[in-house]
Amino acid sequence: MDFQVFVGGLSGVFKGLKISHNKGVHNVKNLQKLKEITQRNEVTVLNWADKLESEILIGYGSQLVKIFDLNTNTFTYSEEKKVGDGSICGIFKLNESLVTAVESGVVKVWKENSTVLDTGGPLSRMRQSPSQETIIGTGGKENDLKLWDLETGKTTFQAKNVRHDELELRVPVWVMDLAFKPNSSQVAVATRYGHVRLYDPSTPTRRPVCQVTAKDLSFTCIANAPKENHVVVGCTTGNMYLVDLRGKGLLLNKYRGFMGSVRQVACPTTEPYILSVSLDRHFRVHHLNTKQLLFKEYMQSRLSGLLVKSSFTMEDVKEESVEGKEECKEEGEVDEEYENMFDQMEVITDKQNIEEERPRKKQKTKSSKSVTEDKIEDNGQPNSEEDTEDVTENPNKSEKRTRSSTRCKTKRLKKQTSEVIVVN
Q1: d(Cα 115, Cα 60) in Å, to the nearest integer?
Q2: What is the pTM of this model?
Q3: What is the C-alpha separation between 394 and 372, in angstroms, rounded?
Q4: Staple partner for 13: which of 9, 146, 242, 269, CB 3.0–4.6 Å?
């Protein structure tokens, strides 16, 4: 099946799914056997292995690397690439050689004469430049943005921290994710402390060209939006924002509907949609301009990775018209056995049939009451001995009446005696 979107989870699941306008999210399938899924092997990174988007690179927390072939829908490669400490935070392919980065800050090119880079601190993300294949960007906690050339093993750009704040205190640095701008040398960065910064290595300045600060927010991921000079960021509070990086920068649309931290965001190159995964086990699709939540699908596990094809579209799926046996018959043809069966069935419409099912006791009480009412004359006395027997069937009613009359008389006597005593 031709899946358009692929997701990975903290439990190690790897799924493919399709999206359409009329059916929403459908054809969700586990692409990995459940026996191979363990908590140690959470999916941390998903990336394309080639420009044709025929293979997917999967990086796990135990530094395991797998390659999934979309043509055969099978895993063609699985091997542990141990280097440094921590889980894999970046992976791609360079000239048929794997390149991996781990959280301890080590980047390695896996070939015969392998090259190892020490980025100078812990890493949160490593990504490859789409325009220059040998250029990578790295960033992490107190390890600001750096651009590296894998051929020479040296840095081509090293970002400089912003100036001190109004209290003359140093602004902390924690790069969570980065995105290379298409057809440009600029790089956008999202930090854990609520900063979205844009760097331009072609200029002599090493400080950000544009900066947007959102107080009380902590960004986790960033992706290029279909709009020019716009990016989409997700935060730990369960919100997603559209950021304008023109001029001084501006925090624009806010996309709602999340119940957990947004872990990964992706946008198609042409369609105005935002795809995201979060820790609340849901996959969501928002409209970029209207901010409307179009689709939401429960994926049964906490999601941590997202990968979308560049040719992603939400076309309507045609429903297959299945013609049954009855539709194949001619209009004049009639099934005689089928109609005779209904003709022989009894139709129950009389109330008498329903009343027959009631218990016999109720019928006796109704008949006795009707007889007594008919036989009693206008004076309220029965005409014969048989009538008196019917009337005296309920002696309890007469006893109740006598009791109530005696009570009323005793109350009247008490009142009269009280009045006499007062007068005396």
Answers
A1: 21
A2: 0.72
A3: 12
A4: 9
